[in-house]
Amino acid sequence: MTSSSTSSSSKPKVLLLGTIDHEPAQRDWSSLSSIAELLEPKATNRATFIEECQSGKLDGTVAIYRTFQSVSITGRFDEELLSVLPKGVRFVCHNGAGYDQIDVPACTKHGIHVSNVPTAVDDATADTAVFLILGALRNFNHSMQALRKSAWRGDPPPPLGHDPEGKVLGILGMGGIGRNLKKKMEAFGMKVQYFNRKPLSEELSGGAKYVGFEELLKTSDVLSLNLPLNPQTRHLISHNEFDLMKPTCVIINTARGAIMDESALVEALDAGKIASVGLDVFEEEPQIHPGLVRNDRVTLLPHMGTWTEETQTQMEHWNIANVRDALEKGRLKSPVGEQVDMK
């Protein structure tokens, strides 16, 4: 093999948008330099990123590795951005399970394949939902805040909470995270039912009962949202849906904030239409609706579903594997669902 065949100019280029934070994955990323030239943009916002793309400095890029946080550099991957990307870009590898920052139909139109990181997030996200379910059922938030103010349980203390045993957990979106959550909450004695676009096989559902959307809302003691955000699921839970729920219902959201209409959620809480909520995600992150902040029946986390060393390292390895497969095989390890049959 001649030296010219291995020079950086003969290699495809891979663009890193965001950072790779964990040392084992950093080594994994560096190893890609044997088959690709690794680039990082100088841009710090969408306008300068578009200028950098148009300047030709990123020409030759075949694949992009992007993080959730990199939206601060590029903005959403929409038609405007896709139209100025280097012409050779064929793969966008997103380090996350949810990919609502990417307009997948527009990518498909441009011939760009998109991947996400599906199963690596399942345990940590389901664990977060378990924490929120227990906290919201037991009214822990009120007294946790009071204790930090030297007020013990609070004055008055919160109403008595509820045990998970014997309660019905309704899972809206029985994907990997939903199925993981099912197994964990069954250990607490909960009965599980779910709604999907279509029923799962008996093997995948693990015996969970399939019910219709309205029945799920009407009969669940705890409702967990575990579905992706897209135009069809935006504000899927709003005024009419809250009206169907039990006044004792607890809602948990570890998916995406905009699946629920936050203003309608605040109204439902204030009107006593639902009992409490546990939220890890919000419509306008990092801003949170003030009606949620002031309500001590709302347990809040700042989008920490995958906030563990183990999970984030695994996610980075997985996304790098998508980049490697794109370069070496011309296909992605885990294409998003909308593109599974894309050639």
Main sheet strand line-up: 8-7-6-9-10-11-12
Largest sheet: 7 strands, parallel
Low-confidence stretches: 1-7
Number of alpha- plus pi-helical segments: 14
Number of strands: 12
Average pLDDT for all residues: 96
- What is the terminal separation in angstroms? 32 Å
Provide tags for this entry.
elongated, 14 helices, 7-stranded parallel sheet, alpha/beta, single chain
Structure description:
By secondary structure, this protein is an alpha/beta fold. It contains 14 helices and twelve strands. It has helices spanning 23-31, 46-55, 71-74, 79-82, 104-109, 122-137, 140-148, 176-186, 202-205, 213-219, 239-244, 262-270, 290-293, 309-329; strands at 13-17, 37-39, 61-67, 91-95, 113-115, 168-172, 191-195, 209-210, 222-225, 250-253, 276-279, 298-300. The chain has a seven-stranded parallel β-sheet, sandwiched between helices. The protein has a five-stranded parallel β-sheet with strand order 2-1-3-4-5. Helix 6 crosses helix 8 (176-186). It is elongated, with a radius of gyration of 22 Å. It starts with 12 loop residues before the first strand and ends in a 14-residue tail after the last helix.
